[in-house]
Every structure is written in structure tokens, then in C-alpha cells.
Specification:
Elements lengths: L2 H28 L7 E9 L6 E9 L2
Antiparallel strand pairs: 1-2
């Protein structure tokens, strides 16, 4: 794969990670009492023009 591809993919994944963390933290603050609770999480990645639907699931513990 080309260097441009690798750089653009890394930049996109960094943006996904940073903005997702910010969104989760804001949702936790707005949800009220989340201490001790565990939340099921799911990310679905699709790319226009490619036949891809990648699903990642996990659990996030409240602060």
C-alpha cells in the first residue's frame, strides 16, 4: 500500500478515536449517575464505494 494511503487511514482513525472519546465523555456527563454501570458499545464502520461493514463491540464502564 502507498504511503499516502497509510497516512490518510491513520489520520482518519485518529479522528475517529478522538471524536468518539469526546462524544462518549459528554454522553456520560449528561447521563447523570453512571458510576459502577457498564454500557454496551458498538461502532459500525462503512465506507462509501467499498463493500464493507465492520462492526466493533465492547463494554465501557462508567466513571
Amino acid at each position: 500500500m502507498s504511503e499516502n494511503f497509510n497516512m490518510s487511514m491513520r489520520k482518519f482513525l485518529k479522528q475517529v478515536g478522538v471524536t468518539s472519546q469526546q462524544a462518549i465523555e459528554e454522553a456520560m456527563r449528561n447521563a447523570g449517575e453512571t458510576k459502577g454501570k457498564t454500557f454496551d458499545a458498538k461502532i459500525v464502520l462503512t465506507i462509501d464505494g467499498l463493500d464493507i461493514e465492520h462492526v466493533v463491540t465492547g463494554k465501557i464502564e462508567g466513571p
